[in-house]
Design a protein that fits this description.
This protein has 7 helices and no strands. α1 runs parallel beside α5 and α2 packs antiparallel against α5. It is mainly α. It has one domain: Serine Threonine Protein Phosphatase 5, Tetratricopeptide repeat (Alpha Horseshoe).
Length: 134
């Protein structure tokens, strides 16, 4: 029961972080948004560089080690990386974050039974950004 309560608290806290970051982005405060996004990675059990530098299979294996829903964690990480992508200025890092975000959402959509309009919107946005990269 404690693990389930922790997971629900994690989801609630985690969903608030991107909302605050998005508000800061809209207000033109991308520096503060970056700080909030960077801090939110820790809620998923590792720092930003871990999630950016490791391959998808390593990240999935890490999430499967916990007893809660690994697909929910993948979705949350994908959403976080999407906001990270939007606030990253350095071109090489931006591409790396984009590619990881895209692979997370592709995996998530292939393995989930749930439908989320928010996830589909992000995935569609990623497809448009992908065309801009190419």
């Amino acid at each position: 029961m404690l693990k389930k309560d922790y997971f629900l608290k994690l989801i609630t806290t985690f969903l608030e972080a991107p909302s605050r970051a998005v508000k800061n982005i809209r207000d033109g405060n991308t520096k503060q948004a970056r700080v909030q996004i960077k801090d939110a990675y820790g809620l998923l059990g590792a720092d930003r560089s871990y999630f950016i530098d490791n391959d998808l299979h390593t990240i999935i294996a890490k999430f499967k080690e916990s007893e809660d829903d690994h697909l929910k964690r993948i979705q949350l990480l994908g959403q976080l990386m999407y906001h990270d992508f939007l606030t990253t200025d350095e071109p090489e890092l931006k591409r790396k974050v984009f590619e990881k975000c895209e692979s997370l959402f592709t995996y998530y959509l292939q393995h989930t039974d749930e439908y989320s309009m928010e996830v589909m919107q992000i995935f569609n946005d990623l497809e448009r950004y992908k065309q801009a990269f190419n």
